[in-house]
Amino acid sequence: MNDTTILDHLPLGACVIDDGLRVHFWNQTLARWCGRCSEEMQGADLGAVFPNLLTPKYRNRLDQVFESGSPAIYSAGLHSHFIPIPSLVSAKSDLMIQQTYVRRISRGPHRALVCIHDFTAEYLQLMELRDEVRERKKMLLQLQEANVALEQERIKAISATKAKSEFLANMSHEIRIPMTAILGYAELLSDPSFPKEDGQKAIETITRNGNHLLAVINEILDISKIEAGLLEISPEACSLSTLMQDVVSLLKVRAENKGLKLTLNYLGTLPELIDVDPVRLRQVLVNLIGNAIKFTGQGEIVVDVSSVIDEGVEPLKAMLTFVVIDSGVGIREEYLEEIFNPFSQGDSSVTRVFGGTGLGLTISRKLVQMMGGEIHVQSQINRGSKFTVTMPAPVVRMQPQIEQSTASVEMMTPCKDDASTDLLRKSRVLLVDDSLDNRRLFSFLLKRMDCEVTTAENGLDAIEKYEAADGTADEFSLILMDMQMPI
Question: Are 73 and 101 in contact (CB under 8 A)?
Fold first, then answer.
C-alpha cells in the first residue's frame, strides 16, 4: 500500500499541491466533502475551487510554506472562508468546524500536503458539555438559593417556636395566677372560720381575677378566629362621642389607681354618628389605652380624636384618627414592628414585669386592618410611646357637631335594661349546657327573674325536651345554650 493509498483512506481531507496551486492528489474524503472526484481534480487549479486562497493574505502564507519549509495551520474560523464544506448539522456551511494543516513534503519539486480535519463532532460535544456545565451551574445556584431560603425558614421556625414557647410560658403564668386567687379565695369562703367581714373582699378578688382570666381567654379566642378567617366585622351606626366616653370611663379608674391623669381631647369638627363596628373599635381603643396605663409609672395618658371629612363623595366619609400618647417606659427601636407579631411583647423582660399575653397589639392591628385602617407606633425608651390609628368611616350624621374641646370624663353606670328583664319574667326557658356548674349558675339567675327553667346536658337531650314541649302549654319561649356540647 503506497502513501497515496493511505491518504485516500484517511478520515480527513487530504490533497497534494505544487507552488502553483495545481492539484497532484485528491483523496476520497475531499471528494465526498466537495463533490469533486480525484480524476476531475488532477492538475486542476485549487484556487478555482477555493477562490479565497488567491487573496494576498492566504497566498503569502502558502508561499512561506514552500520557501521556508515551515508548516502553517489555518484556524477553523479562517478555514471556513476558503473551504466552504456544507455542514451536516446546519444549513449554514460556516458552522462546520475545521482546521487546515499545510506542509512542504519534498526538497525537489515544490510539493505541499494539505490536510483538513473536521472538528464538527468534537465541537458539538464541546457545546453539549458547555450547556451541561451551564445547567449544572444553574442547578448549583438554585440549590444555593434554596439552601439560603431553607436556612431563613429554619431561623424563622426557631424564632416562631421560641416565641410560642415564651407565649405558652407567659400564658401559663397569666392563667395560673388568677386561677390560684380564685380557687384560694373560694376555699377560704367555704371555711366556716373565715371572717365574715372579709367575705366581700374575697368575692371582689374572685370577680377581679375571673374577669382577668376571661380577658386572657377572649384574646386567645380572638387570635384563633382571626388566623382561621372566622372573625367578622359588623358595622352599625353609633355615636362617636358616646363610644369614646365609654372607653375612657372604663379605664379612668385604672389610671387613677396608678396616680395617672387620663385626658380625652376632641380636635376639630367630628361627626356625631358613624358607621363602624363599635365592639371591635372599642376593643382596639381599650387595648391601646390599657397598654398606655400599664406601661406608664407616672405622668399622663392623652387620647386625641380628630377627623377629616371627605365632602366630595356621597355618602359622606370621614378619615378618623385616634392618637394615644403616654409617658411610660417606651419601646426599643428594634422591637417597634415585632410588638405587632403574634405571641410577642418585645423584650421578654417586659412580660415578666408587666404581664400580659402578647396578643393585644396583634389583635388590634388585625382588627384595624379589617376595618380598612392602619395602626402605627412611635416610641423612645423612658420617654413614652405614641400609637396612631387611622381608619375610614361612613358618616351617618354630622349635626350636632362635636367641636374642639377637652372632654370631661365621668364614670358612667351601665343602664339596666328593665324592658328586657320584663320580657323574661315568668318565661319558660330551656337551658342547655354540658357543665353542671354553669347549669346551676344560670338556673339560679333565671329563677331570680321568675323564669321556669328546664335544663338539658347535651344537644340530643335538648332536642328531645324541646320536641316534647313544642305545641303544648309547656312550650319554651327561650332557649339558652352553650355553643359546643357533646351529642
Answer: yes
- Residue 59 and residue 66 in contact, taking contact as beta carbons nearer than 8 Å: no
Q: Smallest Cα–Cα separation from 11: which of 80, 98, 112, 106?
A: 98
> How many other CB atoms are there within 10 angstroms of residue 445's CB atom?
11
Placement of cell 476558503 in the chain: 82
Burial of 361 (0-12, 13-18, 19+ CB in 10 A): buried
Residue among 216, 303, 285, 293 at smallest CA distance from 254: 293
Of 482, 470, 471, 474, nearest to 431 (Cα)?
482
Q: Enter the pTM of the model.
A: 0.52
Can you give the three-state secondary structure of 224-277, one letter per residue?
HHHHHCCCCCCCEEEEHHHHHHHHHHHHHHHHHHCCCEEEEEEECCECCEEEEC
| Residues in contact with 461: Cβ distance below 8 Å, sequence separation at least 6, in sequence order | 432, 487
- What distance in Å separates the CA atoms of residue 381 and residue 358, rounded to the nearest whole number? 19
Residues 275-316 pLDDT 10s: 999 999 999 999 999 999 999 988 999 999 999 988 777 778
Strands 428-432 and 452-456: parallel
Give the C-alpha separation, 53 to 284, whole Å: 90
Q: Which amino acid is at 417?
A: D
Which residue type, as a one-letter code, is found at position 133? V
Q: Could you read off the pLDDT of 27-45 as tens digits, one per residue?
A: 988 888 777 888 888 999 8
